[in-house]
Amino acid sequence: MKFIKSTIFLKILIIFLIFTLDRISKAYVINLLNETQFEEIYLLNFLNIYFIWNEGIAFGLLNFDSDLIYNFITFIIILISLIILFLAFKNKNYTGYFFAMILGGSLGNLFDRIKFSAVPDFIDIHF
């Protein structure tokens, strides 16, 4: 029983930490780009910060001007997040911890979709 309580606590902690890191990093980059007025910051040969507001899903897919479609996609994301939550706590092995990490990031993006009607994307990896 003690092991189950500790794994549940650890998974909740992982979700909270990933969500918090997501919020802090996005707030920092938004603030940095508002102060500097640059859309792109070159960091390394393969890594830039290139800021965009993503109104679709992954890589801007399903980006429509319709509020109905946007709200439908947001509803689907909420359902998927609930499934991931179930999987995170159902899996008793290490897989549950990976689902907890995914859920933390998913909740961060869901928060942005609700607050800003878009998700701030800024990591640009290239070769």
What does this structure look like?
Helix 1 runs parallel beside helix 3. A hairpin with a 4-residue loop joins strand 1 and strand 2. By secondary structure, this protein is an alpha+beta fold. The longest helix has 35 residues. The termini are far apart. It has a three-stranded antiparallel β-sheet. Helix content is 64%, strand content 14%.
Main traits of this protein?
alpha+beta, 14% strand, 127 residues, 3 helices, 3-stranded antiparallel beta sheet, 64% helix, 3 strands
Helix percent band: 55-70%
Question: Beta-strand percentage?
Answer: 5-15%
Overall shape:
globular
Topology order in helix (H) and strand (E) letters: HEEHHE
What layout of secondary structure does this protein have?
Blueprint: H1 2-36, E1 40-42, E2 47-54, H2 67-90, H3 95-116, E3 119-125
Antiparallel strand pairs: 1-2, 2-3
Helix pairs in contact: 1-3, 2-3
Task: Quickly describe the structure.
The protein has 127 residues and is α+β, with helices and mostly antiparallel strands. The chain has three helices and three strands; from the N terminus they run αββααβ. A hairpin with a 4-residue loop joins strand 1 (40-42) and strand 2.
